[in-house]
């Protein structure tokens, strides 16, 4: 029973794993913001479900620190909690889900009622939870949608197994695989930038572009999450999903329409042109403590007590991918990500080739289109201009669209807010389709296995640095020129 998306019907949002970290830090705050801004169907009931014996009061208390409430919103917050409930139950017993089903049914007045299940549960209970939802909690007078979070397996085989499992229970239209980078403003803007501007289309190809660098940097380490992180590593944690998703939006051909499946067809197509990554195209690093740093910075990855001794799990990686189609053949797409670096930043740099037939004695630097995803959304085009005044020198400058300056009044919503709302409206455009996931694992699995089987030792880099010193040489090898002569200054609002 799809398409009963009308907001007048009762909806139930069930949060499984309601006692966990993700729930208190992210999901409860998100549903509160959506509720506060009146974006959800009026008649929405929220039910937390988990093994922990606790009350709604406990949930309120735990998530308090993460829920932002502005003056004057206290009454609305009370109303929000009144629309919430908590049910204790196991993840593997059908009878507990039957009770949950009865609980949900109590609120489902009228001929139609829809259900959304958000699985904020560990991968170990994933199969039990989904089977039990299917067997005991499916909506009988409306749609059932299921939201799931990575990890979607840890290689091609485990991911295929999970996909077949899900496909045996739900239709693809019912499954919403979250990659929260697809909910970020500038990632969503890629489609508009590329296909609503004639200025970019003719130059978006191998004739004009030297390389594309997609980066993710975080200024903190694993922070007690080392146990989980160690069995995944940065390539699975960030690169194979978030960065590859950005790559497919940067590189794909124009979709036939904006229909979610037309868009995802093009994303899959471009991924199919990428061969599995070769080990020689990968550089991995792991952070060590900074003896001159403060607090956490003094500790390296291996000093985290939850990380196994001698682990070679990368916390930094650069991977170079090539897209073997007529638009991109030979253009390096460099994916770079790391934890415990010098700053927080996620951005795309499309670097153009040198101007042919140089008349400026090598002073003209390359153009670069920079799409800054975070922090502080911005889009700027680095270009050369004559230095203003009597001189005839060249000046590196930029055309700058910084959101906080240009769109002062607009609040950019958080990625999770957009994505959860999309599930209510039934929009799958910003969710990962099964075949995209399959291609992502096809590209990454062989090299991940090789790194592990050969026990490749990562290069060291100091907590708080720019990464392993060898990384710059790798970028230069890939035709990415870093001149160091230009630094973008965030404009200050007037
Ligand atoms: C998650 C990763 O998917 O993304 C984390 O598991 C990472 O390791 C996080 O910290 C980064 O998200 P954001 O939105 O803060 O850039």
TrEMBL record:
<comment type="similarity">
    <text>Belongs to the glucose-6-phosphate dehydrogenase family.</text>
</comment>
<dbReference type="InterPro" id="IPR019796">
    <property type="entry name" value="G6P_DH_AS"/>
</dbReference>
<dbReference type="InterPro" id="IPR001282">
    <property type="entry name" value="G6P_DH"/>
</dbReference>
<feature type="domain" description="Glucose-6-phosphate dehydrogenase C-terminal">
    <location>
        <begin position="191"/>
        <end position="481"/>
    </location>
</feature>
<dbReference type="GO" id="GO:0006006">
    <property type="term" value="P:glucose metabolic process"/>
</dbReference>
<dbReference type="InterPro" id="IPR022674">
    <property type="entry name" value="G6P_DH_NAD-bd"/>
</dbReference>
<dbReference type="GO" id="GO:0004345">
    <property type="term" value="F:glucose-6-phosphate dehydrogenase activity"/>
</dbReference>
<dbReference type="GO" id="GO:0005829">
    <property type="term" value="C:cytosol"/>
</dbReference>
<feature type="domain" description="Glucose-6-phosphate dehydrogenase NAD-binding">
    <location>
        <begin position="14"/>
        <end position="189"/>
    </location>
</feature>
<keyword id="KW-0521">NADP</keyword>
<dbReference type="GO" id="GO:0009051">
    <property type="term" value="P:pentose-phosphate shunt, oxidative branch"/>
</dbReference>
<dbReference type="Pfam" id="PF02781">
    <property type="entry name" value="G6PD_C"/>
</dbReference>
<dbReference type="InterPro" id="IPR022675">
    <property type="entry name" value="G6P_DH_C"/>
</dbReference>
<keyword id="KW-0560">Oxidoreductase</keyword>
<comment type="function">
    <text>Cytosolic glucose-6-phosphate dehydrogenase that catalyzes the first and rate-limiting step of the oxidative branch within the pentose phosphate pathway/shunt, an alternative route to glycolysis for the dissimilation of carbohydrates and a major source of reducing power and metabolic intermediates for fatty acid and nucleic acid biosynthetic processes.</text>
</comment>
<dbReference type="GO" id="GO:0050661">
    <property type="term" value="F:NADP binding"/>
</dbReference>
<keyword id="KW-0119">Carbohydrate metabolism</keyword>
<comment type="pathway">
    <text>Carbohydrate degradation; pentose phosphate pathway; D-ribulose 5-phosphate from D-glucose 6-phosphate (oxidative stage): step 1/3.</text>
</comment>
<protein>
    <recommendedName>
        <fullName>Glucose-6-phosphate 1-dehydrogenase</fullName>
        <ecNumber>1.1.1.49</ecNumber>
    </recommendedName>
</protein>
<keyword id="KW-0313">Glucose metabolism</keyword>
<comment type="function">
    <text>Catalyzes the rate-limiting step of the oxidative pentose-phosphate pathway, which represents a route for the dissimilation of carbohydrates besides glycolysis.</text>
</comment>
<dbReference type="InterPro" id="IPR036291">
    <property type="entry name" value="NAD(P)-bd_dom_sf"/>
</dbReference>
<dbReference type="Pfam" id="PF00479">
    <property type="entry name" value="G6PD_N"/>
</dbReference>
């Amino acid at each position: 029973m799809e398409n009963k998306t009308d907001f007048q019907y009762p909806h139930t949002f069930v949060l499984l794993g309601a006692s966990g970290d993700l729930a208190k830090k992210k999901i409860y705050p998100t549903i509160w913001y959506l509720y506060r801004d009146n974006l959800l169907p009026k008649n929405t009931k929220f039910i937390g479900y988990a093994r922990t014996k606790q009350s709604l009061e406990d949930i309120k208390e735990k998530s308090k620190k993460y829920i932002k409430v502005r003056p004057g919103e206290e009454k609305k917050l009370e109303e929000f909690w009144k629309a919430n409930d908590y049910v204790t139950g196991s993840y593997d017993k059908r009878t507990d889900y039957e009770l949950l089903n009865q609980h949900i049914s109590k609120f489902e007045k009228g001929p139609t009622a829809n259900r959304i299940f958000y699985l904020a549960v560990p991968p170990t209970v994933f199969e039990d939870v989904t089977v039990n939802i299917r067997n005991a909690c499916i909506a009988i007078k409306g749609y059932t949608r299921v939201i799931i979070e990575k990890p979607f397996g840890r290689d091609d085989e485990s991911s295929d197994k999970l996909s077949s499992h899900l496909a045996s229970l739900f239709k693809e239209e019912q499954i919403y695989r979250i990659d929260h980078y697809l909910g970020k403003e500038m990632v969503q803007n890629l489609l508009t930038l590329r296909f609503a501007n004639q200025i970019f289309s003719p130059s978006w190809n191998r004739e004009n572009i030297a390389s594309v660098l997609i980066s993710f940097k975080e200024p903190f380490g694993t922070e007690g999450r080392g146990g989980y992180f160690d069995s995944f590593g940065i390539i699975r944690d960030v690169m194979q999903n978030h960065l590859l998703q950005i790559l497919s939006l940067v590189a794909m051909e124009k979709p036939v329409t904006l229909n979610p499946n037309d868009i995802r067809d093009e994303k899959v197509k471009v991924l199919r042109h990428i061969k599995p990554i070769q080990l020689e195209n990968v550089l991995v690093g792991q952070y060590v403590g900074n003896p001159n740093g403060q607090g956490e910075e003094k500790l390296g990855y291996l000093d985290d007590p939850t990380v196994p001794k001698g682990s070679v799990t990368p916390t930094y990686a650069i991977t170079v991918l090539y897209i073997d189609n007529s638009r991109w053949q030979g253009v390096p797409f460099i994916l770079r990500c790391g934890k415990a670096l010098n700053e927080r930043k996620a951005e795309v740099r499309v670097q153009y080739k040198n101007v042919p037939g140089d008349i400026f004695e090598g002073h003209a630097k390359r153009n670069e289109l920079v799409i800054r995803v975070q922090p502080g959304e911005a889009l700027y085009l680095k270009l050369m201009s004559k230095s203003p005044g009597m001189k005839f020198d060249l000046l590196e400058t930029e055309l700058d669209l910084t959101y906080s300056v240009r769109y002062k009044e607009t609040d950019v919503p958080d990625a999770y807010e957009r994505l959860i709302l999309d599930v209510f409206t039934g929009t799958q455009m910003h969710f990962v389709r099964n075949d995209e996931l399959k291609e992502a694992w096809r590209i990454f699995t062989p090299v991940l296995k090789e790194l592990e089987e050969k026990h490749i030792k990562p290069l060291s880099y100091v907590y708080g640095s720019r990464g392993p010193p060898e990384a710059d040489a790798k970028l230069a090898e890939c035709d990415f020129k870093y001149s160091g002569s230009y630094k973008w200054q965030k404009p200050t609002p007037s």
